[in-house]
Each structure stands twice: as structure tokens, then as C-alpha cells.
Amino acid sequence: MARGGRKLAELVDKLDLIVEVRDARAPFSTSAPLVSSFSKLRPVLRVLSKRDLASPERTKAWLDELGPGSWAVDLRKKDGLAPLRRVLLERKPAHRELRLAVMGIPNVGKSMLLNALVGKAQAHVGGIPGVTRSVSWYRNEGLLVVDSPGILDPHAEPGVHQILSWLGCAKAEVLGGFEPAALSFIRFLRERGLFATVLKKWELDEQEEPPETTLERVGRRLGCLMAGGAVNTELAARRLLDAFSSGKLGPVTLEMPGDPIYTEGGDVL
Ligand SMILES: Nc1nc2c(ncn2[C@@H]2O[C@H](COP(=O)(O)OP(=O)(O)OP(=O)(O)O)[C@@H](O)[C@H]2O)c(=O)[nH]1
Ligand SMILES: [Mg+2]
Q: The whole model's pTM is what?
């Protein structure tokens, strides 16, 4: 287990419960296997963050699949937190604070959830993975809450890493570059029937063409041009992924419960 994972494992003994945060746009790929292993030791509640960036019908299907003890929230608007708060207060021991940790993979909104729960902007929040670097405790309103750094599973399928790079939970530049990540994203959108949903904002129509050509069209549309007029595809790739991960292209959920999106070899179908 990596050092960060060991630190979390040592922490579990001190906790009453764990809140796992996943991204509502891909609740399967953004699950943290380490947290599943802790679920034998402590109750785990599940929060799907970024509900505002996901398809409402698909979020409902995911909540049905995950069952009781799971909620979808919009942490920017602090929407949907009341039922979670209620459950936390019910579980608070009479004579001391409820001790819980917010865990999950990078950039899913753990620190933002913590700030919403303790009622103050205490933990640092940021749009890139790896903002929280150590385990820290925060307290307020009968809660003692631990913020923790996002943990990626090094043994996850290659397809999981690919999806995480589209969502901004893993750094595309580390995983082989923005361009391959954007090309696999375009391919995925086409194969999953999501192309029009995602790219309508930029008025790009779906055409029978290689993903490289689509990326060039994205680059032209966004004015990512080099001297001489050729498209800067690296920049176009970056702009496409940034726009998707930050929600500027509108709400879309990439995964459905029971709908496998990985091949047996672990690549995205
Ligand atoms: N639109 C939207 N953005 C969100 C929501 N929750 C979090 N974010 C954004 O997601 C980004 C990451 O939030 P953080 O709270 O820093 O995420 P984290 O899980 O603590 O990340 P690390 O500390 O890097 O592991 C920030 O840009 C937030 O503004 C949400 O519900 N909706
Ligand atoms: Mg954080």
C-alpha cells in the first residue's frame, strides 16, 4: 500500500464512519478501492458530487443502484446536503463529536464537502488533482472531520485511468499527454451516443471521420491555430478536456449502472 494509503488505514481505527465522495459523472470509475476495503471496518456513506454536471436521470439510476446511505449533491450551490447532515447527527454519540473522514480519489470535491459540513471555508479547494496533500482534522457543529489527499489506485484498469483523465481526477499530461486523452474521449463519445450532447455547445456536428479530424475541427472552432494556420492539436485537446471536466460543455454522465465500459483487457470499450 502506498504511503498515503497506509496513513488512511491507520486513521480508520479512530473513526466512527467514512464518507466516500465520487463524481456523479462516473460513479463506477471514480470509486476508491481502498475505501471499499475499509467498509469491512467502518460504515461508509456515499456522496456523488458534481450532481450539477451529471444527467439527472442517470444520477437517479446510480442512487437506486448504490442504495440507502448514498446521496447526490451540488457542492457549488451546497444543494442536497440536508439528508446527509441528518444521518450524521443521528449517528453522533451523546457525549462527544462524531469522528468521520472524507475520502476518495483526487479532485472529486472532498475538501469542498468538508467545508460545507463544518460550515466554514477551512480546507483548500482547487480545480486540479492533488490540492490536499496531508491528513488534517477540522471541527464544528458536533463533527470532527478529516480531510484526506485523493488516492488513485495504481492497479486500476487502464480504461479507468483514461476516464479519470477526462474528468480531471488524474493528470492527462502524466498519463501520456492531452492529445491521446482527447482522442480517446472523442472516440468514447461517438461510440456511446454522447457526441451531440457534449459538443452541441460548440456547434460541432457528428461526422463519419477519424477522431483526429474531429479534434482538428474542435481546434478550428476554438481558434487554436499556429502560425501558418495549422491547428495546434495539443492546445485543442487541452481546451476540450478542460471544458468537459469543469462542466462548461453541460451535464453528461459517462457511465450507467450495469453497463460495462471496459473490455476484459481493461481498456475503454
Ligand atoms: N460544479 C461543481 N464543481 C464542484 C463540485 N464539487 C467540487 N467541485 C469542484 O471540483 C474541484 C475540486 O474540488 P476539491 O474539493 O478541491 O476536491 P478534492 O477531492 O479535495 O481534491 P484533492 O484534494 O486534489 O484530492 C474544485 O474546482 C471544485 O470547485 C460540485 O458539486 N459541482
Ligand atoms: Mg482536497
A: 0.93
